[in-house]
Amino acid sequence: MATINELQLAKELIKFPTVTPIDAGIMKFLEKKLKTLGFKTKVLEFKEKDSKPVKNIYAKLGNKGPNFCYAGHLDVVPAGNLKDWTVNPFKPSVKKGYLIGRGANDMKSSIAAFVSAVSNFVANKRDFNGSISLLITGDEEGVAINGTKKVVEYLKKKKEKIDFCLVGEPTNPNKLGEMIKIGRRGSMTGRLSIIGIQGHVAYPNRANNPSTALVQILKELKEIKFDNGTKDFQPTNLEITKINIDNSADNVIPGLANAKFNIRFNNKHSSSSIKKKINKIIKKISNKNKSKYKIDYSVSGEAFLTKPNNTTYMIQNIIKKITKIKPKLSTTGGTSDARFIRKIAPCLEFGLVGKTMHKVDEAVSLSDLKKLTLIYLITLKNYFKWKLA
Q1: Which of 18, 95, 207, 240 is the most exposed place for a label (fewest CB within 10 A)?
Q2: Taking the chain, what is the end-to-end CA distance rounded to the nearest angstrom?
């Protein structure tokens, strides 16, 4: 059986302009590749109300346990101003030891590395005691409602068991081998509106300026000391991301003031416990100012921590052997699809260096890509060997 080259596959994947939620034929292309390796595939399309449909794929090689799963996403963020790029973002180019293109870093090259690793694994060990699966989505960079979340629900319904999942996100800050993610902080956005009474600036007694209450609320929210962090997590932080008072006149007291904030919270809290704390402050200050208010929240994920197990330490040792760096087990950074997968399986995240993700001239080192493929290959070999021991 012919093996798949990771660089060639990465180039082919980058050519598809898969800006969320556009598929552009990429799932069909990947499905065809996986079928040549013996995978049974299922393309899953989901569409929530008021959203565009998204294609995902779940592919599996083998029908015995244990099931080792790799998860990733083929959607990418927009390229931005094309004039700022030195290459066409969807015509991958190799320059000075780097593959450049949108998705090269986040995270088409990682998917290519795993598929290449699987092709090498099955070429030498066609009959292995277990299963290898891939959970690939087209909705990670967007609102993430038609992607991994829905696939996980589908797998639960089908009673499909995953024994361990490796999520291939770019986890390393500067060098390959620096960091494995074993958890993530939760993320919640609040949208606050303070409703006052519009009026003339010269007659404040006839109006109720909502900006007064809004400023006081935001000040108090920023002063909350949620915690000092934990052994595994950095402290919880609240950041104000938008303040909007739609008023073009200098002599008018506005009737409405809006703000948006985001909280990244560790596992000392839940989204509901933080809501209670924030709502208490909003209610207190709004009542004091005789203002009405409206607050809406959206939770993209709760904080979680996957307790390291033998597979975690096995992968950590492989990374150290290949990169000469012992990776730190970390929970830093934003959210990822691991927040959905951890509900059905223990998981960790390890991929490329994330320095250029979402940037102009997004790139991956060819050397890192080769090393990552080797890390994934040895992980597969050791995982199934270890499980048999």
Answers
A1: 95
A2: 28
Identified catalytic residue from 6, 23, 139, 140: 140
Tell me: do 194 and 175 sit in the same domain: no
pLDDT of residue 389: 32
The answer to whether residues 33 and 170 belong to one domain is yes
Residue range(s) defining the domain that contains residue 85:
6-184+303-388
- CA neighbor of 66 nearest in space, from 134, 117, 131, 152: 131
Same domain, 212 and 101: no
333 lies in some domain: yes
Active-site residue 12, yes or no? no
CA distances from 257 to 12, 215, 261 (A): 48, 10, 14
Instruction: State the average pLDDT over residues 7-14.
Output: 98
**Position of tokens 């068991």?**
161
Domain count across the chain: 2
Q: Is 302 annotated in the active site?
A: no
Is 1 within a domain? no
- Res 211: pLDDT: 97
Catalytic residue among 75, 169, 337, 362: 75
- Rounded CA separation 192/294 (Å): 6
Sheet with 98-100, edge to edge strand ranges: 93-95, 98-100, 363-365
How confident is residue 388, by pLDDT bands cut at 50, 70 and 90? very low
